[in-house]
Every structure is written in C-alpha cells, then in structure tokens.
Amino acid sequence: MAITYQKSSQADDALMADINTTPLVDVMLVLLIIFLITIPAVTTSIPVKLPKENNIKSEATVKTIVISLDATAQRYWLDEKINSTTDLQKRISLFKQINDTPNVHIRADASVDFAVIGQLVYDLKAAGVTNIGFITQQVETVR
Fold first, then answer.
1. What's the per-residue H, E or C state across 103-142?
2. pTM
3. R_g (Cα) of the chain, nearest Å
4. Dist CA 44 CA 75 (whole Å)
5. CB atoms within 10 A of CB 3
6. Contacts of 56-60 spanning 24+ positions with Cβ under 8 A
7. Could you tell me which of 42, 39, 57, 44 has the C-alpha nearest to residue 108?
8. Helix 114-126 crosses helix 85-98 at what angle (to 10 degrees)?
9. Residue 13 clears pLDDT 90, i.e. is over it
10. What's the DSSP call for residue 101?
11. Cβ neighbours for 71, distance < 8 A, ≥ 6 positions apart
C-alpha cells in the first residue's frame, strides 16, 4: 500500500507579509487631534518680557482667556489685536455665553506701566470677569 500526500497550492502556504496599519493610523489621528486642541491654548506669539516673581503655578485650560500687553501697551486677545474697550467687552460677553465664569490670564510685558494694567483689570471687572490672574516667569533660585 502506497501512501500519497496531496500537495497544497503555494498560495495557501505563503506567509502574509502585510502590516496592518489601521491601529497605527487611528493612534496617530488621535494624537494629532489632541495636539491641535492643546497647543493653541498654551502658546501665543505676542513677544513680551514677563516680570519675574515667585508664584503658584496654575494650568491654563480651554476656558482660560489669555490677554497679552506688549511693550507698547497694546492689548491682544490670544493673538488678535483688541482695538478698544468696547471690543474687549464684546469679546468677553460672547465668551461668557459659552462659559459663565471665564478665567482671564494677563501676560504683560515687564516694562508696561502699572496704570495700564490697572485699567485693563478695571475693564475686565466692568465686563463681569471675576477670575483674573497674571502670568509671570518663575524666579530662578540658586541651590
């Protein structure tokens, strides 16, 4: 009695050499979305020289408004120029429709007069903002 073996075709024996890239693409798209959402909240392009103070660190959130004052005391809402106090009040009222209690962080150049910063705080209070903070650089301590 002879035993015969049936040979299978070569297509069945070939190894699958393709890499499944679907999970990789999914992870990359999620990371891209996270970076697109978080980076604009953290970075601004208005160049200011921040004053150096010891302070308590707080994290900026999506609900935080950053108003910058450059060396010429020009006001900026993130990177957009604020033309007048009424323009600031309109922006605050629109933002308050989304968030009842907005947080405002002020990035002021160290050379800006205190009266200008005081006027900005007064304008923010008049617009109904109660949570106002200042962004400074941490003083470097020698150990």
1. EEEEEECCCCCHHHHHHHHHHHHHCCCCEEEECCECCCCC
2. 0.57
3. 28
4. 13
5. 4
6. 57/138, 58/133, 60/105
7. 44
8. 50
9. no
10. S
11. 48, 49, 109, 111, 112
Query: Taking the CA of residue 31 as centre, how many other CA atoms within 13 Å lie in the half-sphere pointing to its CB?
Result: 6
**Can you tell me the distance from the alpha carbon of 74 to that of 72, in angstroms, rounded to the nearest whole number?**
6
Pair 75, 109: CB distance under 8 Å? no
Confidence band, pLDDT 50/70/90 cuts, at residue 95 = confident
Lowest mean pLDDT among 56-60, 91-95, 116-120: 56-60
Residue 97: predicted pLDDT: 85
Long-range contacts formed by 36-44: CB under 8 A, 24+ apart:
37/62, 40/78, 44/68, 44/76, 44/78, 44/79, 44/107
Tokens linked to 103: 């947080």
Question: Do residues 67 and 34 touch, judged by C-beta distance below 8 A?
Answer: no
Q: Which of 43, 99, 100 is CA-nearest to residue 68?
A: 43
